[in-house]
Amino acid sequence: MGRPTLAVWKFASCDGCQLTLLDCEDELLELAGQIEIVHFLEASGAAGEGPYDVSLVEGSVTTPADRERIRHVRRVSRKLITIGACATAGGVQALRNFADVREFASVVYARPEYVATLATSTPIAAHVPVDFELQGCPIDRRQLLEVLAAHLAGRRPDVPAHSVCFECKIRQNVCVMVAHGTPCLGPITHAGCGAICPSYGRGCYGCFGPSPTWGGDRPNTRGLLPWLDMTEDEARRVLSTFNVAAYREDGALETPEGTGDDASP
Questions:
Q1: Deepest of 65, 89, 145, 179, by most Cβ within 10 A of its Cβ?
Q2: Is 28 helix (H, G, I), strand (E, B) or coil?
């Protein structure tokens, strides 16, 4: 029996999460001895045909072609793992979900009629079943290696669902919000970064997206907003970054009417 096969796919994204895999360096060399990487255009021109044991998918669905391609990827993948904020929440490009994409296209492109796009940027899970989601912008290399190692061992990945506040406690950080009044999204943000920003005296800005509560529900984002000591517009800007669409889902942000998924300029 041969080694398990791995494919890495790119949709609408900046390639940062794929680069995280390449940055694993020594670990990637060891991993390559256990998994056969047969499709990874960021690293090689070779594009082996499926089916694949595992597919890592970076990026969101933003065009009709993307929508069809992700269905193909799902069909040829035994396990499909989404990596990064674009694939798990629609990414920063989901800001289009709150406006008129036709107006954007008319401003950016000389001939917008040639641009085939959807009105929204949506996560992969909005279109096909996903076996595991790995959050972050970009993802954390340790978590990525854990997910791949878990697949090889046939177990559930040990990726914590707690908030960045737990990571601050582990690092014995003084809470920047309590001690200094610095706005911080740590209480509602998924762990994974190691609390990098609070460790250097600045507030978390939510690059790993909303963290589930102990009951599995979405975090109480609206409950945190009064503690940030911001105006409504300031709070909206803070939440309108890598995971803007995910915050919309828990009611912290609202989408204007009339921006359906199938609209195109």
A1: 89
A2: helix
Give the sign of the dihedral formed by CA 191, CA 32, CA 39, CA 48. Answer: negative
How far, in Å, CA of 159 to CA of 139, rounded? Answer: 12
Q: How far is CA 64 from the centre of its chain?
A: 20
Q: Which of 18, 20, 70 is nearest to 44 (CA)?
A: 18
> Residue 261: what residue type?
D
Q: For residue 238, what are the contacts with CB-CB under 8 A and spacing of at least 6? A: 183, 185, 205, 206, 228, 230
Residues 6+ apart with CB under 8 A from 125: 82, 88, 133
Could you give the C-alpha distances from 159 to 50, 80, 106, 108, 193, in angstroms and in order?
28, 16, 42, 40, 12
Q: In 191-258, which residue ranges form alpha helices assigned H by DSSP? A: 196-199, 221-224, 232-239, 244-249
Q: Which residues of 144-174 are buried (b: 16+ CB within 10 A; e: fewer)?
A: bbebbeebeeeeebebeeebbbebbeeeebe
pLDDT value for 219: 80
Cβ neighbour number for residue 236 with a 10 Å cutoff: 17
pLDDT > 70: what percent of the chain? 91
- What's the pLDDT score for residue 61? 98
Comparing 50 with 121, the larger pLDDT belongs to 121
